[in-house]
Amino acid sequence: MSSLEYDVFEVLPNGSRVQRASLSGLEAAWVELSRLAKGTTNELLATQSQTHQVVAQVNVPPALERARKRIFQVAYTEALGIARSEELTHRGYRVTTVIGNERAKHVLTDSTQPYDLFVIAHAAPKRTREEMVAWLRANYPNGKILALNPVHEWLRDVSYNAPLHSPETWMPIVARALD
Fold first, then answer.
1. Relative orientation angle of helices 26-37 and 78-90, to the nearest 10 degrees
2. What is the per-residue burial (b if ≥16 Cβ within 10 Å, else e) of 7-18?
3. CA atoms of 62 and 129, how far apart (whole Å)
4. CA-based nearest residue to 27, from 81, 98, 89, 111
5. ∠ CA 26-113-127 to the nearest 5 degrees?
6. pLDDT (tens digit, 9 = 90+) per residue, 3-31?
7. Is the pLDDT of residue 1 over 60?
8. Cα dist. 170→23, 27, 107, 112, 142 in Å?
9. What pLDDT does residue 136 have?
10. Distant-in-sequence, close-in-space partners of 133: CB < 8 Å, separation ≥ 6
11. Whether residue 133 has pLDDT greater than 90
């Protein structure tokens, strides 16, 4: 499977967007956002080229930041991460999605953004997912964590466990967690 294409934009003070890059793969988009953020305080965002869905943002203005609940999603496959991000964004949440534990730790370590909920996706071995939960508990002891799980699997030390079937099974838990 080939990587999806992403466009990286800078939002100028007048609200206009200037495209800064087109890249293949979410990881490359994150690297470019991080690189650009070192040289500007303007908002930067990455969108999936085909759908124009915002998949990552940095330097978000404080007023916009406070307006919506923020979710940090640790996905383990790009396609599923984007699909969940689209579902959550469609329902009014601001979502940051990263692929894998190492990228999540890197982004969260460098971030000053507050998150209202952490979502741990299902498509990794249980041990990998448990390692991410342990890291989150050590670094965000009061953070709410939702684990999306394969059938007959639950994670310990999370705020919520949900079977991953369709958004209808876990979306009510998101709403309750962020109420």
1. 70
2. bbbbbeeeeeee
3. 31
4. 98
5. 60
6. 789 999 998 888 788 999 999 988 899 89
7. no
8. 32, 26, 25, 27, 21
9. 98
10. 120, 145, 147, 155, 156, 157, 158
11. yes
Condensed to tens digits (0 to 9), the pLDDT of residues 27-82 reads 899 899 999 999 999 989 998 888 877 888 888 776 665 667 899 999 999 888 98
**Cβ contacts of residue 136 below 8 Å, gap of 6+?**
118, 143, 145
Strand partners, 72: 96, 118
Q: Could you tell me which of 74, 64, 121 has the C-alpha nearest to residue 94?
A: 64
For position 90, what pLDDT does the model report?
A: 77
| Tokens 């293949």 found at | 24
The pTM for the full model equals 0.68
**Residue-level pLDDT at 38:** 92
Q: Cα separation of 90 and 154, whole Å? A: 27
**In this prediction, what percent of the chain has a pLDDT beyond 90?**
54
